[in-house]
Design a protein that fits this description.
The complex is a heterodimer of chains A (430) and B (492). With 430 residues, chain A is an alpha+beta fold. Chain A contains twelve helices and 16 strands. Chain A has helices at residues 5-9, 15-23, 75-86, 98-116, 121-152, 162-174, 178-188, 197-216, 221-231, 237-242, 336-349, 391-398; strands at residues 30-35, 39-44, 52-57, 62-65, 92-93, 246-260, 263-272, 278-286, 300-307, 316-323, 356-368, 371-375, 380-384, 403-410, 413-421, 424-427. In chain A, a hairpin with a 5-residue loop joins strand 7 and strand 8. Chain A is globular. By secondary structure, chain B is mainly alpha-helical. Chain B has helices at 2-13, 30-38, 44-61, 86-98, 101-113, 123-132, 137-143, 145-152, 166-172, 175-188, 190-200, 206-213, 225-230, 237-247, 254-266, 312-321, 326-333, 337-345, 351-360, 379-382, 387-396, 398-409, 419-430, 438-443, 467-490; strands spanning 66-67, 267-273, 280-286. In chain B, strand 2 and strand 3 form a beta hairpin. Classes of the chains: A alpha+beta (430), B mainly alpha (492).
């Protein structure tokens, strides 16, 4: 398994876990340790008389430990995985002990149960109809609110009382349209002192309007799915899992984590090496619970991905995954002109301004008019997002020479995600 | 994107005040716009929203990369030295994560000695560290290679290496930097450093004079006397005191000569008859002259004793002897240091003054004479002793002099402790957990030999209440020692 220490450390929930994990990565800390294709386990001598039993399911990168820590993964899990990344030969390949096989067995059982869960279809249809009615009512109210803004002009928006936005956000939540509630909230959180807020605000109004108008006018089925998803309807993951997905070796290009109230949203950007498709795997966790999957930037996964229905599929779920045994050569896009054409094609069928990832070949960082840009071999330039803080890491590795770079963005404004450096992927986390 | 500006202008003013005109939009949008504005089923607000949606999509779809020829940056020159190993690079990353500057300094020293460079990936972190901690800069500059020099050109915060000469720093730097430059120059060219200070002396204010003159303490010598004496009448009391302090460290200064005039009259050799009148022996005759030049009391010599058991005369003499270079006695009596020491040892109250003088004038010949069991320890003499003698002395008397030893063995430029010193120091510091916390070990990890990792269990304090704290501290210390061990191994 290709696993670097840096990738393991990226899994730690905070700095102190990272440090503590590193301290536990010495072989002397582990009374026993073992591994097979599916899992990794070890017993770590802690302060108690009995050693802590730590285990990692490598296929889902799931952790379990008998220590009392509430952190996830705990320092023992991180320590064990670092030790494995450093010295895999130290782990004897044996049959897992009972406490490991029991846990693995339970995980499998849980997965099967999930699939077999019975559903009451009639009740579900009724609930669905009630929700759609509620959403339609909410959309009508939101449209009036937007029109009111358009009539009076954006000029007075920065001075609006916070309740102007809060009330509409709550209304959208009540109307069971959380997607739209999120857009209203984003509009209220814009920095009205920053130049260009007017365009950002107008873009948000346009997006809300397109969702309302598109949904009301019942667009084509594929686009309707995008609209429903934008409004906040959820898609049954079980149904998606029934479908056949795309099996490929997927490189995890980057991970972005955001806190939204008490919810942690994790965006993972993937690239299919053979299919040359990009995917966004979203994960959510409430109250700092563990994410279902630990996706590490730079990991190559042999996985089957099922895309959510869309006019331009991007969001996907991982149906099954194992760490790839071999890594084929990776190739990407060689010109910004090609990226512009791809973006135009996306926008022509899905008119929402969405940041998309691209794996670029041989682009070099340059400075122009006091800003950083990325130039391709035909001297086409796109701007590096001003919020990107890893520019000097990028420069240090590049030395001014072109390199293969994963980026995320739209409209000639891109944030570098990571560098493909030989057979190594360097994640440029912000 | 003029058309988008029109959209924004309309949105800002509101449709009540302004409508978007077809002429303000690109030709490609004309037909669609006509259809939208012709739709009477929707109001003007919705018409605007539809036009804005169309324009936004037109803007997004038409985004083209900027085409500019000749926008380039100079390539980083090829390296002349090899990169350090992956193993060394891994240790460096762990040290940066641990935020341990002493270990970082140690890593850099090893990298410089090995003639190697840090890998490019860690350069930004290393340069940030060097920006915050000036002491790391020289070694960072040596380890960053051509890539580092090139990278510094893009970040003005990292341009500390950009050829700001010592002279420029002296002339335009902050007070702290100026004193540092002067001190460094005193190490390599004391005369030039004095010359620089002389040149700006008239323009300095009293505070900066008092601060800058302290730098002359490095390599202080007879050549400095003339100028120092010329400024000893400065108005500022602070400057006067600092100048006096320096002059009292130079044997050829007038002030020391003045003291010596008095002391050599006061301390003379006399012959005494030995036991039962068989032969004679030499002894010291000590008597302060009846009249003492009053000038000395204006140079910091106190007139009155603050101890009832010590007479005013003895007290004055004690102070004066402590400012007499010990080799003056050798010439004066034409005797060896050992003989002179023995003569003074008959006068227990004055002997410590001789010890202080040996420390003040950094006399390495005299220093070992004071390592006997006198019950008195001289911190200033410790650094004059040969390493082995010093370590044996420190270990032997550790319990008596704990409080003065720790500041001594942790001072700047101390070499790594020998194992016996390290054992004694760790046993003591472990027994005082509230005084010697993790930060003490972190700050001094470069001094603690890696072999101590195997001995930490033997340093557990006797007091059971201190066991818990020591366990946690020793785990931390062990982690630092392991990192230190990895540094040594990765460059060996």
């Amino acid at each position: 398994m290709q696993l670097t220490e840096e990738q393991v450390l990226a899994l730690a929930p905070d700095d102190s876990s990272r440090k503590a994990g590193r301290e536990l990565s010495g072989p002397s800390k582990w009374v026993t340790k073992g591994a097979n294709e599916q899992a990794l386990w070890g017993e770590c001598q802690g302060s108690g008389s009995k050693p802590y039993q730590t285990q990692v399911d490598l296929n889902g990168m799931a952790f379990k430990c008998s220590c009392p820590s509430r952190k996830f993964p705990c320092k023992h899990g991180i320590g064990l995985l670092i030790l494995y990344a450093r010295q895999p030969a130290d782990f004897t390949t044996t049959e897992p002990p009972a406490w490991v096989s029991e846990w693995l067995g339970k995980r499998e059982e849980k997965d099967t149960k999930k699939k077999e869960k019975p559903t009451n279809e009639a009740a579900q249809v009724k609930r669905q109809q009630a929700r759609e009615q509620s959403v339609e009512d909410g959309l009508a109210e939101l449209l009036l609110w937007i029109k009111d803004i358009v009539r009076n002009g954006l000029i007075g928006i920065p001075e609006k009382d916070p309740s102007f936005f809060i009330n509409m956000t709550r209304r959208m939540v009540d109307a069971k349209a959380p997607g739209l509630a999120g857009l209203v909230k984003t509009a209220s959180n814009l920095n009205f002192y920053r130049e260009g807020w007017q365009t950002e605000f107008t873009d948000l109004l346009v997006r809300m309007y397109l969702l309302i108008a598109g949904y009301t006018n019942k667009q084509s089925p594929a686009l309707l799915e995008d609209l429903r998803s934008g409004i906040g309807f959820t898609q049954s993951q079980d149904e998606l899992r029934e479908q056949k997905g795309i099996t490929d070796i997927w490189l995890v290009l980057g991970k972005q984590t955001e806190e939204e109230d008490s919810l942690t949203v994790e965006r993972n950007w993937l690239y299919g090496i053979n299919s040359k498709k990009y995917a966004l795997v979203l994960q959510f966790s409430a109250m700092s619970q563990a994410m279902p999957l630990n996706l590490i930037p730079g990991f190559f996964l042999q996985a089957e991905l099922v895309y959510y229905p869309s006019a331009q599929p991007l969001r996907a779920l991982i149906k099954s995954q194992v760490v790839a045994a071999t890594i084929p050569p990776v190739s990407g896009i060689s010109s910004w002109q090609e990226v512009a054409e791809l973006e135009t094609a996306y926008n022509s069928v899905l008119p929402f301004n969405t940041a998309r990832p691209f794996l670029m070949q041989q682009v070099r960082p340059v400075q122009y008019e006091g800003s950083w840009w990325l130039a391709d071999s035909s001297n086409r330039l796109v701007k590096v997002k001003e919020s990107f803080t890893g520019i000097y890491r990028l420069m240090a590795i590049s030395g001014g020479k072109p390199l293969d770079l994963a980026v995320l963005g739209s409209e000639n404004n891109y944030e570098p995600l990571g560098i493909l450096w030989g057979n190594q992927y360097i994640f440029l986390s912000n | 994107m003029q058309f988008w500006n029109h959209i924004i202008q309309t949105a800002m003013l509101g449709t009540d005040k302004k409508q978007i005109a077809i002429s303000e939009l690109p030709e490609a949008m004309a037909n669609a716009t006509t259809i939208i504005t012709g739709n009477t089923a929707i109001d003007k607000e919705e018409q605007f929203l539809q036009i804005a949606s169309l324009a936004a999509n037109y803007r997004q779809s038409g985004a083209q990369p900027l085409h500019k020829e000749g926008i380039t940056i100079e390539l980083a020159p090829p390296e002349e030295k090899p990169y350090c190993s992956n193993r060394a690079s891994g240790v460096l990353k762990d040290i940066l994560d641990e935020d341990s500057n002493p270990l970082l300094a140690l890593w850099l020293e090893h990298c410089v000695s090995a003639g190697q460079l840090t890998t490019p990936l860690l350069l930004p972190l290393l340069l940030d560290k060097a920006t915050q901690h000036k002491t790391l800069r020289t070694n960072v500059e040596q380890c960053m290679g051509k890539r580092g020099e090139w990278l510094c050109g893009f970040n003005k915060n990292w341009q500390f290496s950009a050829a700001e000469t010592d002279e420029e720093r002296w002339q335009t730097g902050k007070p702290d930097q100026r004193r540092q430059v002067l001190q460094q120059l005193r190490n390599t060219n004391p005369a030039l450093a004095r010359e620089w200070l002389q040149q700006t002396w008239a323009q300095e204010n009293a505070n900066s004079k008092a601060e800058l003159i302290k730098a002359l303490e490095v390599n202080l010598g007879a050549e400095d006397v003339e100028w120092l004496e010329s400024i000893s009448t400065e108005k500022s009391q602070k400057v006067k005191e600092e100048t006096l302090n320096l002059l009292r460290q130079i044997p050829s200064s007038t002030i020391i000569q003045q003291y010596w005039q008095i002391v050599q009259q006061a301390v003379t050799l006399k012959k005494e008859s030995a036991f039962l009148g068989l032969g004679s022996k030499t002894a010291l005759s000590i008597q302060l002259p009846a009249v003492v030049d009053d000038k000395i009391f204006k140079t910091g010599i106190e007139k009155l004793s603050n101890d009832k058991a010590v007479s005013d005369e003895d007290f004055i003499l004690y102070q004066l002897i402590s400012f007499i270079p010990p080799d003056f006695w050798e010439t004066h009596f034409n005797e060896t240091p050992t003989v002179i020491y023995q003569l003074f040892s008959k006068h227990e109250n004055l002997l410590p003054a001789l010890g202080e003088a040996a420390g003040r004038f950094k006399n390495r010949t005299w220093a070992p004479l004071f390592t006997g069991n006198t019950g008195r320890h001289y911190l200033s003499l410790l650094q004059l002793l040969p390493a082995k003698v010093r370590d044996a002395y420190v270990v032997k008397h550790f319990d008596d002099m704990q409080e003065m030893v720790i500041p001594f063995i942790t001072q700047d430029n101390m070499p790594e402790w020998s194992m016996p010193v390290a054992m004694a120091a760790i046993i003591y510091t472990a027994s005082e957990p509230s005084q010697f916390t993790r930060s003490f070990y972190s700050k001094n990890i470069h001094l603690i030999p890696v072999q101590m990792a195997a001995e930490l269990a033997n340093c557990t304090p006797a007091d059971p209440y201190k066991h818990y704290t020591w366990r946690s501290t020793s785990e931390y210390l062990l982690k630092l020692l392991r990192l230190k061990e990895r540094i040594i191994q990765s460059f060996s």
